[in-house]
Amino acid sequence: MKISSWAQFLVRTAIALAIPCTSFSQTASSSAAIVNNLMPQPSSLTAAPGRFLLTPQFSAGTTRFNSPRLDAAIHEAMRQLRQKTGLALAEQSASAGAGSQLKIAVQGAGEELQFVEEDESYTLSVSSTGVHLEAATAVGAIRGLQTLVQLVQSSGSEYELPAVSIRDSPRFPWRGLMIDFGRHFEPVDVLKCTLDGMAAVKLNVFHWHLTEDQGFRIESKLFPKLTIMGSDGLFYTQEDVAEIVRYARARCIRVVPEFEMPGHSTAWLIAYPELASDRAPDSIRREFGVSDFALDPAREETYQFIQRFLGERAGLFPDAYVHIGGDETVSPEWKTSPRIQAFMREHQLKDSEALQAYFNRRVLKILTGLHKHMVGWDEILTPALPRDVVIQSWQGEAPLVKGAEQGYQGVLSAGYYLDAMKSAGEYYLVDPLPSSAPLTPEQRKLVLGGEICMFSEHVYARTIDSRLWPRTAAIAERFWSPEQVTDVDDMYRRLDVVSVRLEALGLRHLSQEDAGLRELAGTEHIDELRTFASALEPVGFHERYDQQKTSRLTVLDRFVDAVRPDPPSRYGIERLTHDFLKRPKTDTADRDALRRWFEVMAASVPAVERQMKQPPLLA
Amino acid sequence: MKISSWAQFLVRTAIALAIPCTSFSQTASSSAAIVNNLMPQPSSLTAAPGRFLLTPQFSAGTTRFNSPRLDAAIHEAMRQLRQKTGLALAEQSASAGAGSQLKIAVQGAGEELQFVEEDESYTLSVSSTGVHLEAATAVGAIRGLQTLVQLVQSSGSEYELPAVSIRDSPRFPWRGLMIDFGRHFEPVDVLKCTLDGMAAVKLNVFHWHLTEDQGFRIESKLFPKLTIMGSDGLFYTQEDVAEIVRYARARCIRVVPEFEMPGHSTAWLIAYPELASDRAPDSIRREFGVSDFALDPAREETYQFIQRFLGERAGLFPDAYVHIGGDETVSPEWKTSPRIQAFMREHQLKDSEALQAYFNRRVLKILTGLHKHMVGWDEILTPALPRDVVIQSWQGEAPLVKGAEQGYQGVLSAGYYLDAMKSAGEYYLVDPLPSSAPLTPEQRKLVLGGEICMFSEHVYARTIDSRLWPRTAAIAERFWSPEQVTDVDDMYRRLDVVSVRLEALGLRHLSQEDAGLRELAGTEHIDELRTFASALEPVGFHERYDQQKTSRLTVLDRFVDAVRPDPPSRYGIERLTHDFLKRPKTDTADRDALRRWFEVMAASVPAVERQMKQPPLLA
């Protein structure tokens, strides 16, 4: 680029004011050593000397199997390479394969419907003469393409792929992200960006939490009142669902829908009060926290309704799993209603827990009839539960271990609640299946993986990205990479790189903070406010809820909404402090760096204070 | 918000390091004086003492006419107020009117189809007891709602509307923004955001430049080959068009489509070579600049094609105007083909200009038959042209004046080319109809207004916002506000406010720069790079084109794409320098401020230089 006339004016003025201007010099260092920025880290990587130089002639082609899905993924990888390198790579079809520099050899499509045991492995080898990507399935090849894009690095003047041999497959087959769309709805575009991010870090399950006390977020043609009365008009149409399922499948991501029952069901009961355990709500719940309405497990009509409802869902969601929630069920009527009590006696159900277990067995039977497996939160783990159920542990690791001991499959979510606003480093070190877990090898296989959870009391379209990313990428590595990959420093180093790459895919987790600060301050001059904000982070769900008494109607446009969880300064200062305390007292470098940081921070305060005097929201 | 435990840690560490931390104090100053941040400025504003305090009980209601369009606009205004103030304003229907604090009295819908002479006037009065918005049409009321939202200001602890009496109507009835989607296509979402921004600053014509040598961007069911062969798959479906027209109408914006003919027509001729002036192109044009292909004006089939094509368009675009381009037509065959030469002799057309004038008259006749008026770039202004045509002057102000003298209506675009990358201040001072123009009062009425032009050689989805905004807001004020509103300092002061507000609507003109820099640097640590970039701006179209030899296939991901036109530092430094030169030599404040700025800039250079060593794109 040429510096414009305005910049020339600046330079002239600088000369007039006798301020030295450094000129730029560029040295073309042709390094071929690998800079390992991969996230997640592959199971095995061997670096060799040499590199493959990227030129505008770089092309990709399949040598064996191809399919529209694989072809589209290759196109997308080429687009990302084009964007990243500025090279005008040709847009040719991938099927014209054998002469290409990137040869993609895939044995077959994999399963028609992606399932838990899908083979996601691949090998990727780069030499100075070419790049080979091999996989048993299109899914494996698509995972490998993400690695390839991440592998691109630059020497002084060129883009290159370092010579490597990568052999990779995931540690866990179930690597999920759950998002709650009940408490706050998100537009389809936000979901698509989220799926793009998930694919980039090799997550493979999108757990779509679609019903809540605060809103019923999916259209039913059989029961239209569910959204007419229970959604405030904020819901996904069946076309939206088809589009998201298609979009996810293109990225080798399974979509597991969740319909909360029998609790967290206020929104169902607004529309169909006859399904309630005697007492139905007057209106959609605006408050957060647990409600005390529940579907009635003691009425045959409830199961007829669920049968028809889930039957309609089965046509929309091809995945083999359906999540029925099952957590936090509170219904005083289960203890007081003579009718329900009589039902319990008749069925020898001694307490509410047994009644819910009965309900779960009935729903499981419906799902089995629909050829679906059941997933539920850990409350569903009761003695009478059949084994063909996946337990999602949210209350701790104990239910997962307990479940595995009893023969249940499970995924871990305790420790991965993003709305707790912990740091990437904290989440990163939570292992779904630590070596120390007291399980046999057979039982260990029952632990399928983990799911990150984003409950949405305090997020909406303009803040969700910064609550999800980049922390989700760190946890995704935990689910994919070998257990020994636990170097937090190295994780943070790579997270900075992957975070920017995720933004290039369309996510806005980095830019949302400044945009929020500008909006609060009412000006784009936010240098000091940005400095100040960089040291703050949002509080966890409970703390904010307790203090602000937030509800579904709270406008989420405060300072706490603008700032990001786990800001980069936090880890930086932690490192400095750590090093400072470790080093001999005579070495003052860290102390000086810390002092400088605090001085910059303190220097920002007067301007921030001035700015905060004006807009009440900022104050 | 509560500062989180990490921030508490920081404060403790600061204390340990003996760095003073200023505490925040807040004084509730209850100022009621108006802070005039309105853009565009209204024709008349009288401020009074007092204010209307905004509370969660604030509500809006219509007292006379209402319609779904007006109702939706009121809802949107309430949403913006909610977002801006954090007040949980109720979401009631606007028709429940008379008891509301904001009373909206509208006489009627206005015309079924918005047209040039639409009444857009309104009055807005705020007193301590209530707010009254009155307008003859829904269009006027919707303009007034934008003013109302802009009027909200904050005292120390509250949000308020200052007591004012505003009487407002536009200076010009045609206030447009043209965007070229031929050279680069933009997704529908980008268009919608653009329309949101246009509505916020009271622009009322979206000029949709849909065909170019580089691509045919609108589906034709009659002639599907136009997009199959001429669009690289990047085009608007007829559903997209309907959606955009609907979205624009909701915001009282007319949509004027442009189909370039007979020149700039490479994309037509790829699909239908039989329409060419003897010689047809082999492929879509990738280069920029003017091509030398043209539709054949000497063949009856050409007009039959245009008749059918425009007939199909007429059903899609309700607006009374259709733009036929008409600029930069070059066809060597018009001078060499015996057949065309014979046609010209037969019709007594002495040269190429006369031939194009003949073509224009034929197209005008077709449009008249479709009940449409014709708009064209100033080349269409030739002696034989009928008067019922609007001339869009792009080559200077002379054609506009010349046209008005001859009785043609016109809009000015010369001086408003955003791709020239001039400053907001420069565009701002270009007047479509300066007092000095040598025209009679009757002729002056023929100047309908102006149109901002964004040609898209060097923009795409991730940079277009920063090329459009906020400069478009400054020009929008020129089109709406009285001629005497020319204070550039005050314009820049208000532009900072409106710019942030536009971002809150969903535009990304401010955040795109940092995102681009992060992507180039491959890290989110871009403090110095940001400082450095803040003094640079992209070069104008010609300069870049000449230097980089850009084409449709050039990847637009360089430093020059990341930085913004007219960065805030430019005007700031200009002011400082100006003041510095004006003041007595003993007053060194400005000189010191300038020096500090250059020192900060110079201090950023070493880090920027280090960062630039790595990614080739950044270097």
Please describe what this structure looks like.
The structure is a homodimer of 619-residue chains. Chain A is an alpha/beta fold and 619 residues long. Chain A is 40% helix and 15% strand. Chain A contains 23 helices and 17 strands. The first copy, chain A, has helices spanning 5-16, 68-85, 138-151, 188-200, 225-230, 238-250, 266-271, 300-316, 333-336, 338-346, 352-369, 398-406, 424-428, 441-444, 464-468, 471-480, 488-504, 511-521, 527-533, 541-548, 559-562, 568-582, 589-613; strands at residues 44-53, 60-62, 102-108, 122-127, 130-137, 153-154, 159-168, 174-180, 205-209, 211-212, 215-216, 254-258, 321-323, 373-377, 389-393, 409-412, 447-454. In chain A, the strands form 3 sheets. Chain A has an 8-stranded parallel beta sheet with strand order 12-9-8-17-16-15-14-13, with helices on one face. In chain A, strands 1, 2, 3, 4, 5, 6 and 7 form a 7-stranded mixed beta sheet that branches. In chain A, helix 12 links the parallel strand 15 (389-393) and strand 16 (409-412). The first copy, chain A, is globular. In chain A, 51% of the residues are buried. The model of chain A is unreliable at 1-7 and 9-31 (pLDDT under 50). At the A-B interface, helix 1, helix 2, helix 17, helix 18 and helix 20 of A face helix 1, helix 2, helix 17, helix 18 and helix 20 of B.
